[in-house]
Amino acid sequence: MTADPGAPKTAGSMTVPLLDLNAQFRTIEPEVREAIDKVITSGRFILGPEVAGFEQEVAAYCRVPYAVGCASGTDALVLAVRALGIGPGDEVVTPAYSFLASASCVALCGAKPVFCDIEPDTYNLDPAQLEAAITPRTKAVIVVHLFGQCADMPRVLEICKARGVAVIEDAAQAIGAEWRGQRAGSMGDLGCFSFFPSKNLGAFGDGGLVTSVRQDLGDLTRILREHGAKPKYHHIKLGMNSRLDALQAAILRVKLRHLDVWTEGRRRNADSYRERLAGAPVGLPVARAEARHIYNQFVVRSRDRDGLRAHLQAAGVGTEIYYPKAMHVQPCFADLGHREGDFPASEAAARETLALPVYPELLPEQIGYVADRIREFRPS
């Protein structure tokens, strides 16, 4: 993702793409090509030693005993919901502000997504509003660690444990993030990760992972990802075909070795933005003292978000809106009967937030250029 459509070349300006994957690839190209050649030579393209090796290594990184590779982050969420036996008649609470998969995974399993508003500063699920969303039909809560910062898991877990409700961590944007030293994906019953190319740990295509601290859920997820078979051709559950590709696993094994260095680069860039944008006409991300924020996105806030985006685009700066429409007003969930105003913090975030380039290969002069363009912006 180099020539971002949101960052056209402009005469007399610097071009700063939202993300430059080629810059990252240049630093690891020999390692990646060697890993790919090894898989091609082996002839083992489905599961096999590369996937098993990656699962072991990423489990150690996330500090969990069980990790199961799958085809995408969305599949990881579906597998987690199905592993908990959730289906028709059940409810699952999830934030109203997130990527669609955080709620569609529930509906795809025949259950009902129940939305909960977010904290206006962190954009994560608001524990203060969680209790009211839980009903006797609630089987799980999907907590999204949005933009790379963990939600307040101790409070969420306390509420859910008291009511016998399972917790799924949607950690698609949060690999390596922590809350008081505990890694994302290690605190709930199940954790779900995405390796979409734009993620901090991104594959060369789709990929996902389910983690668990529970052997029963880890084993069941592994069975469900291969048509529910154990052993082969003996199907004890109705599962799905969702296997992590061996080529992707090999690439991810290379990248995992560099992940902490890249994460620290993102964190340095975020600190630089904070310093350069002090007093600028935007709200800056809130980083909790208890959290290790890994900045999958660096999200600022403006009442004139669309004007700011147009201003930056004209200056050659790539940006993205995550997410322009809250979940409860998406057309696919119209049958749930929600309307504008039901979840005000989520709706405000959808109107006002904008992600800036924060990838680790950004140069200091690029960060300075972006900050200068923001500081000169005058909201309408």
Please provide a brief summary of the model.
By secondary structure, this protein is an alpha/beta fold. The chain has twelve helices and twelve strands.
Structure description:
By secondary structure, the chain is an alpha/beta fold. The chain has two domains: 26-255, Type I PLP-dependent aspartate aminotransferase-like (Major domain) (Aspartate Aminotransferase, domain 2); 257-375, Aspartate Aminotransferase, domain 1. It is 38% helix and 13% strand. It is built from twelve helices and twelve strands. The protein has helices at residues 21-42, 48-62, 73-83, 101-108, 127-133, 153-162, 215-224, 246-256, 259-276, 305-314, 344-352, 364-375, and strands at residues 66-70, 91-95, 112-116, 138-144, 166-170, 178-179, 182-183, 190-194, 208-212, 291-292, 298-301, 353-356. A seven-stranded mixed beta sheet has the order 1-9-8-5-4-2-3, with helices on both faces. The protein has a three-stranded antiparallel beta sheet with strand order 7-6-10, with no helix packed on it. Helix 1 crosses helix 8 (246-256). The radius of gyration is 21 Å and the shape is globular. The two termini are 31 Å apart.
